Amino acid sequence: MEKIALNKEIILNATEEVIRRFGPDKANITDVAKSLKVSHAAIYRYYNGKTALWNAVTERWLTNLHAPSNDILKEDSPADIKLFHLLKEFAEAKHRSAINEPEMFANYIKLARSSMEVIEKSIEDGINCIKEIIVQGVKEGIFFTKFPHQAARAVYFATSVFFHPNSLEDPDRIQNLESVVNLLIRGLKNPNK
């Protein structure tokens, strides 16, 4: 019998705790159910198996990780400044997570490797944020491109090396990121301005 009222948020919170305790490879739905004092069948009412649950945990982590990006999109700044801030935030978000919660960061990296559809959605969300700023820049007459989505993809992939966990240890990472971003912004700028 269920001892508590379940919902997806409660299950995700419990799953994160179980993953912290056992790691993503050893943790399972039975562990989550035990921590909530419910049957594993109760969890299956919300998530169709371990993969779905682990994907939901990874998606929530990525959403929380990139939440500050939404504030940057709302900034009252010219597009070139906003784009610089956004790309720097993309790089710094994972760095902060690695420093503030190293065990969870390591766990999420493992989870992310097996959650390709979640990762692909996160990448597309990032590209769409960049596209929104590029469209703003075109309207402001700062950027020149006929294909904002293609330009956004190019900007994302040109800077994605700085978002990757392997880059976090590079002492010149921020300086290199800023150099690349400045180069990309110059490439997007309208030559008539």
TrEMBL record:
Residues 28-47 bind DNA. InterPro entries: Homeodomain-like_sf, HTH_TetR, TetR_C_27. SUPFAM superfamilies: Homeodomain-like. Keywords: DNA-binding. The keyword Signal does not apply. It comes from the Bacteria. Residues 5-65 form the HTH tetR-type domain. Pfam families: TetR_C_27, TetR_N. GO terms for molecular function: DNA binding. Gene3D superfamilies: Tetracycline Repressor, domain 2. This is TetR family transcriptional regulator. It comes from Anaerobacterium chartisolvens.
